[in-house]
Amino acid sequence: MSNIKAFVIKFKSLIGLIALCVIISIITPRFLNINNILNVLTQVSVNAIIAIGMSFVILTGGIDLSVGSILAISGAVAASIYIKTHSLFLALAVSIIIGALIGLINGALVSRGKIQPFIVTLATMTIFRGVTYVYTNGTPISGLLGKFSFIGNAKIIGIPFPVIITAIVFVITWYLINETRYGRYVYALGGNEDSARLSGINTEKIKTTVYLISGIAAAISGIIVTSRIGSASPNAGSGYELDAIAAVVLGGTSLSGGEGSITGTIIGAMIIGVLNNGLNLMNVSPFYQSIVKGLVILLAVLLDKKNKK
Amino acid sequence: MIKQPILEMINIKKSFPGVKALKGVNLRAYSGEVMALLGENGAGKSTLMKILSGVYKKDEGSIKINGKEVEIQGIKHAEELGVSIIHQELSLLSNLTIYENLFLGHEITSSMFKLNKNEMIKRTEELLKKFDFNISPKTLVKELTVGEMQMIEIIKATSKNSKIIVMDEPTTALTDVETKKLFEIIRQLKEQGVAIIYISHRMEEIYEICDRVTVLRDGEFIGEELLSNVDKEKLISMMVGRKLEEQFPYRKANLGDIALEVNNVCMGKKLKDISFKLRKGEILGIAGLMGSGRTELAKLIFGEYKKTGGEIFVEGKKVEIRSPKDAIESGIAYLSEDRKKEGLVLNLTVLHNMSLANLKRYEGRGFRINKEMELRDCEEYTKKLSIKTSSPYQIIKNLSGGNQQKVILAKWLLNSPNILIIDEPTRGIDVGAKKEIYELLNELKAQGKAIMMISSDMEEILGISDRIIVMHEGKISGELTREEANQETIMKYAVGITN
Ligand SMILES: Nc1ncnc2c1ncn2[C@@H]1O[C@H](COP(=O)(O)OP(=O)(O)OP(=O)(O)O)[C@@H](O)[C@H]1O
Ligand SMILES: [Mg+2]
User: Fold this and answer.
1) ipTM of the complex as predicted
2) Minimal Cβ distance to A191: which of B324, B329, B347
3) Mean pLDDT score across all residues of chain A
4) Could you give the dihedral angle defined by the CA atoms of residues A175, A178, A182 and A184, in that order, rounded to the nearest 10 degrees?
């Protein structure tokens, strides 16, 4: 009895995801269709990658609201460089470096400046949205063809390329968090900063680097989004931070830090993606979709709380 | 005439996943008396008291208060039944003030739900005065020392007019003066007919303040005795199930070179002109009252605090230690006196807590942690320090207080530093395990490690130090060899009477 309960608690997000899939496929048979599934996975990848980066930040007890703006600016920069130089490598490299730099700024302000993460990233979110508007003059940068559109649209042995990128990001970060010293330090820092520091951990460095990781993840998502649409919009990614946080929370990670997992986050992102897709297939109006999504998050957190007692 | 107990807990059983914490335990408490509750770390003392105070629900057994059987539903219900408890782990809200904590859940309101702050502050002032505690009720709890927080917990528990008060290791963080004050209060409470249940690992305290004793071992009930009928040896053998000889196994030091030299070190007003040397193969005891700057000195050497003057040499080389990380790299380790705040990461496992300061050495190819090696070390030290845990993967929060302390100690022993600074190392640790820890320290000493031991436990300082430094108000007020040292001279230096 208690074994079953422990099992349910451990795999609650996964069980939730499976239950959701079952319910949706009963209601609409169009759900369980290989094309639809691949479509869902592709749509999930952008949020999943951002949410993985976000997980690092949240595991340390922080939050990163600036991911949507990082996505926009790195998408815009990638697009404009690609159009000018036609060098895919240059476009991608600069774009990711910009994401990393903004992450570093966030990290430095949080760790050295000792300002609350919410406030720091609220400010950089606003600033870099503005920077994107200035950079793009407020109009989308379009006309992205050729190699650039490969990233978002190509398939390799039938698997959409964004899904492959997500898988790679997942494997790397999973390794980082579960197999290396760095991962342990992230958990320890989120659990008790004083104990972590007094155990010889350079807590400032760890705090800075989680925002760096989040910035890079947002930039990668920015490239995928831009490539998929074939243009970089200055509004791209606005509100994405909330979907990412929702994925992290649905995956069982605690907002107060120290507890959670990357695997959970991926499942959380899938739950949101499947829910969106299912509601679309059922022709539910977007207004109601938003209500349903909110309720699902509340329900998940409430169930989690009850289990912990 | 046989006295009727006000509280009877009969055949109480309680299991957690993988652990049978209580296997049928009895406990009685009598009005106007203090019942000591004794047992090794993990024996089940805190669990039993958490059942009484409504934190946990019992699996089996019955509880009678004033002869009437009760089913305790929760914390509030226990309080209504007249039970209050001072928990082993502090449970104050650190971002609130003292008076807000004292009246938490019992706030005084005037009209229209408006809080009557002035009244609460006034009453808090009165309570604080009763304890000769000179501090503003509006002080934030996070600004207090551990000892002061403990005093607030005690004041909180005694202010509720309870019939039964449980004190789970109340003195671990108290100064001698504070402890004396606590005992005065306990005597007053006894006169008022309150029944007290008192948990402690300090034998002297038990004999000073308690009337009867109940002993648990491994979740079993061993017996209840009048304290006047049992001597210390008997009690210890009831607790550990065997005779314990020589509580302080001293071994003669084999002194080596100087490991650590501190020259004229200052830190603002907290530390003034501190100079001393620590040799390899030596245990240097640091005595002094709480607040005398001992912990500050330790943390300064460890790089957690910055010095404002002076020099530090490690193995003859001048060092600038800027962070705990630097210190560990120079071969210095520091065990904090405050395990919950500065030692543990509560939501991590025993294994991950123990390896936290030592991960570098498990790092293999691809920066991958060698988990087999990590586990092997953890199991070795779990055995060495007889840590009671259901598995290395148990969340450390679920260990008993003493066992948590052992894990943190293991973390630093595993680090195998050349200079080991330990701050109240045996806080909350039972008599049997204490001796094992002293043996381990002796072993380290024999290996040529230098050990600096801060302790408020006079017997411990006198029992295993090779040399003793006494601190008073941020200065070294005296230095004694093992032969010279005794309780009186240490106390004299500690309160600042020199010559
Ligand atoms: N919440 C919990 N989950 C799992 N095991 C627990 C939990 N609480 C206590 N235990 C286990 O129950 C046993 C008894 O613990 P308890 O805290 O009562 O010991 P104790 O006698 O108070 O020891 P100490 O002197 O170290 O404080 C221990 O083995 C402990 O690991
Ligand atoms: Mg206990």
Assistant:
1) 0.90
2) B347
3) 93
4) 180
